[in-house]
Design goal:
By secondary structure, this protein is an alpha/beta fold. The protein contains 14 helices and 17 strands. 34% of the residues lie in helices and 14% in strands. Strands 1, 4, 5, 6, 7, 8, 11, 12 and 15 form a nine-stranded mixed beta sheet that branches. The chain has a two-stranded antiparallel ribbon with strand order 2-3. Helix 9 runs antiparallel to helix 10.
């Protein structure tokens, strides 16, 4: 395109904005008062860059229950009787094979094997092993697909979580939800395509907004955090004495100012800013409606557990996640911190399971009974696993576990994955993978595949290079697909 063509194209876009953009606030207000009027959000919000999935998706929505801190597979889903038998004995060099340790246990003179203190049994028709700490999850194992051979490149929390959420250990890449929003757009013009929920008062390793950030993708695809309390979305409500019609009029004037700025600079982010203001206006009605759980019957709260009526708890967020996907929110990311048990693991993980087990299982059951599990993918897992040896002193009733990136367990449910199925195996020590390894990029490629996306074809050119969620490798794990 030569210089004159660029100017002509710029003027055409400018003229289009001038003719079609006036009165956006009024149009938005009309849409809220009459949703059937045909008003739709700006293309940057409602339309994905792909236009349509690459192929028929098995899942339409995702709820990702991220257990931040690294849950121990040995106390949850990967039973290793040999560790109980060899409790206190030294980790054999033939098993470790010189693999790196974190700085927290590299200086230990001894690496004593630590068997789990919690009993396991097999459940369901699938016979999946589950710890006594997860009695509610044990009841839904025939709806779950366990992947016991996940492995990652990162050994510390921040790069490991960043790797799972963005495909890179280094900050600055778009998150999974942002990629899905960018590729597929939104199915609800009144709510963001990507919403984030963080359990309150969970403690543990810090989380950063960049984990649900858009990075170099257009800003309309950033995750929007819903919080507990009076204002679920910050700065969304009108100030005292400021009426909804005033907001609509303000948006009209603000649009005119943004249009002038766009005429001057031609920056597409200005269009994204307009779209975000319009979305915020519509969310003033949609957010209070979806977060008001007064219409939920008592039996639903009972199913999710005693914390379900306390906004911001893990149980309440699981229930809210279900309400969001009922309204066609495409990606709900739920973070629960506190799984980092370097010491006092028996007591710590017992509390973590007590706070999360019932609600996680209830979410699967609730989606299934509403006919939503078939096309909603639910994921449970952390950023890495834990070591089979004790970090620090091993005693009769206490021990800790360090980070272990070589193998750990994640489960998935619904959305096109096999139910009552386990994939991948680890050795008797739970230290190395012996069958069907699944890298983080394989996991991400599979997630995108279930949503109808070829992970190699959803890219964004930035600073001269085409980026994608799975970076330069990764393959779909076809054996777990239903």
């Amino acid at each position: 395109m030569n210089h004159l063509d660029k100017i002509s194209d710029h003027l055409n876009r400018r003229e289009f904005l001038r003719k079609s953009g006036m009165g956006l606030g009024a149009f938005a207000l009309g849409a809220m008062l009459n949703p059937s009027s045909g008003f739709s959000a700006s293309p940057q919000v409602s339309d994905g860059i792909l236009g349509a999935p690459h192929f028929a998706p098995k899942a339409k929505r995702v709820i990702y229950l991220f257990q931040s801190g690294g849950p121990s597979q040995f106390e949850t889903f990967d039973h290793k009787p040999l560790l109980e038998k060899m409790n206190g004995e030294e980790l054999p060099d033939s098993v470790r094979q010189g693999q790196r340790l974190t700085g927290m246990s590299a200086g230990q003179s001894s690496l004593p094997l630590a068997g789990s203190q919690f009993a396991f049994d097999r459940y369901g028709n699938s016979g999946a092993p589950v710890s006594e700490l997860m009695p509610h999850t044990a009841k839904v194992v025939d709806d779950l697909c366990f992947i016991r051979s996940i492995h990652t490149d990162a050994i510390n929390h921040d790069p490991a979580i960043t790797f799972f959420q963005t495909g890179s250990q280094q900050a600055g890449r778009p998150s999974i939800g942002s990629w899905l929003s960018y590729g597929l757009g939104s199915d609800n013009e009144n709510l963001p395509a990507f919403i984030v929920l963080v359990s309150k008062n969970a403690g543990g390793q810090p989380l950063y907004a960049r984990l649900w950030g858009n990075a170099f993708l257009p800003s309309t695809h950033q995750g929007v955090q819903f919080r507990s309390g009076k204002d679920p979305v910050l700065f969304l409500n009108d100030p005292n004495g400021f009426h909804h019609q005033d907001r609509a009029q303000m948006l009209d004037y603000l649009h005119q100012l943004n249009e002038l700025q766009y005429e001057a600079y031609g920056d597409p982010e200005i269009l994204n800013r307009i779209a975000q203001y319009e979305m915020a206006f519509r969310m003033q009605t949609s957010v209070p409606e979806v977060t008001d759980m007064s219409d939920e019957p008592d039996w639903v709260f009972d199913m999710y557990g005693p914390d379900a009526k306390d906004p911001g708890t893990y149980a309440a967020n699981c229930l809210l996640a279900r309400r969001l996907i009922e309204r066609d929110v495409k990606f709900v990311q739920l973070y629960h911190q506190g799984w980092d048990q370097h010491g006092n693991l028996p007591g710590g993980i017992k509390n973590q399971c007590k706070n999360t087990d019932q609600a996680s299982a209830a979410l699967v059951k609730d989606l299934k009974q509403r006919g939503l599990l078939e096309d909603t993918l639910v994921i449970w897992g952390g950023e890495f696993g834990r070591t089979n040896y004790s970090q620090g002193k091993l005693t009769k009733d206490n021990y800790g576990r360090d980070h272990h990136p070589r193998c750990f367990t994640v489960w998935m449910a619904g959305g096109g994955v096999k139910s009552g199925f386990s994939y991948g195996e680890t050795d008797d020590f739970g230290y190395n993978i012996t069958k069907d390894p699944v890298h983080v990029h394989d996991f991400q490629a599979t997630l995108l595949h279930l949503m109808g996306i070829d992970h190699e074809r959803l890219t964004f050119k930035h600073q001269g290079r085409r980026f994608r969620l799975t970076d330069v490798h990764g393959h779909v794990v076809k054996d777990v697909l239903a």
